[in-house]
Write a structure and sequence with these properties.
242 residues, 12 helices, globular, mainly alpha
Length: 242
C-alpha cells in the first residue's frame, strides 16, 4: 500500500510540477525533467508517460534524446540506454551522430561551461575533485562538461535544471546543492529551480528526501514543512566544493 501511494503521489505531483516549468521554447521542459527523473529511478512506464506529455507540449525529439544522454553522467549508462529505448519506442525517429570533436576542444568548452555553472568556485571545485583522483577531474571537464553538457540540442539552462531534477531524485545532496546554484547562475528563475527540484524530490526514496531539503536550505533558505520554499535571500556564494 505504501509503495503504491508513493507512486500515485509521484505521478500527481509530477504532472503538476511538469506543467509549471516553462522555458522560452514552450512548455515541453517540465515533462522532459519528469522523464529524466523517472528513468533515473527505474520507472520506464512513468518515463514513457512523461515523454508523451513532452511531445504533446511541443518539445523536440532532439531535446528528448539529449535528456536521455545526460543520464549517463548522473545515473549511469544503464539509465541512459534504457532512456533511449523508451524514447525510440514512444517517439520513433533516427538519431544522428554529432561532430566527435577532440579532447582539446572538449576541454575548452568544458572549462567555459564549468565556469558559468560554478562561478568563482570553479578553481576550488577542480582542486577538490583532483584531490579525489586526477583522472576524475579531467573526465569531469573534458567528458562531463565538454563532450556531454556543452552539446547542441538543449540550452545550458535547461540542462542545468535537468541536473537539479535528477540529482534530487537520487538524493545526492552535495552535488544538488552545487547545481541548484548553477541553475541560478545560468539564468533560471527561482520558481523554475524550485519546481525542477520538487519534481526530483517527489521521485526520491523516502529516506533521501531530507537530503534534498538540506541541499535547498544550504543553497537558499529553510523550507516550510512539507515542501520547498522560494528563497528569502539573494543568491550567495556556495560553501561546498563538488
Amino acid at each position: 500500500m505504501r509503495a503504491s501511494s508513493d507512486k500515485a503521489r509521484a505521478r500527481s505531483g509530477a504532472a503538476i510540477g511538469a506543467r509549471a516549468v516553462r522555458t522560452g521554447r514552450g512548455a515541453g521542459l517540465g515533462p522532459l525533467l519528469e522523464f529524466a527523473a523517472a528513468m533515473a529511478t527505474g520507472d520506464a512506464a512513468g518515463a514513457a508517460r512523461a515523454l508523451r506529455r513532452a511531445r504533446a507540449a511541443g518539445a523536440s525529439r532532439v531535446a528528448a534524446e539529449e535528456t536521455a544522454l545526460m543520464l549517463m553522467l548522473y545515473a549511469g549508462y544503464p539509465a541512459a540506454l534504457e532512456g533511449l529505448r523508451v524514447a525510440h519506442a514512444e517517439w520513433p525517429g533516427r538519431s544522428r551522430a554529432s561532430d566527435a570533436g577532440a579532447p582539446r576542444r572538449w576541454r575548452a568548452s568544458g572549462e567555459r561551461l564549468c565556469r558559468r555553472v560554478y562561478g568563482p568556485n570553479t578553481r576550488r571545485l577542480i582542486e577538490n575533485v583532483r584531490a579525489l583522483h586526477p583522472d576524475l577531474a579531467t573526465w569531469m571537464i573534458e567528458h562531463g562538461y565538454g563532450r556531454v553538457l556543452s552539446r547542441a540540442g538543449m540550452p545550458a539552462r535547461d540542462r542545468e535544471l535537468c541536473s537539479v531534477t535528477v540529482l534530487a531524485a537520487l538524493g545526492w545532496e552535495r552535488q544538488l546543492h552545487s547545481h541548484l546554484l548553477g541553475a541560478r547562475r545560468l539564468g533560471a528563475p527561482l520558481a523554475e529551480v524550485r519546481r525542477a527540484c520538487d519534481l526530483g524530490r517527489r521521485r526520491a526514496p523516502a529516506g533521501r528526501r531530507a537530503s534534498v531539503r538540506r541541499a535547498w536550505r544550504a543553497a537558499f533558505a529553510a523550507p516550510p514543512r512539507g515542501g520547498m520554499a522560494a528563497p528569502r535571500r539573494r543568491l550567495t556564494t556556495p560553501r561546498r566544493g563538488t
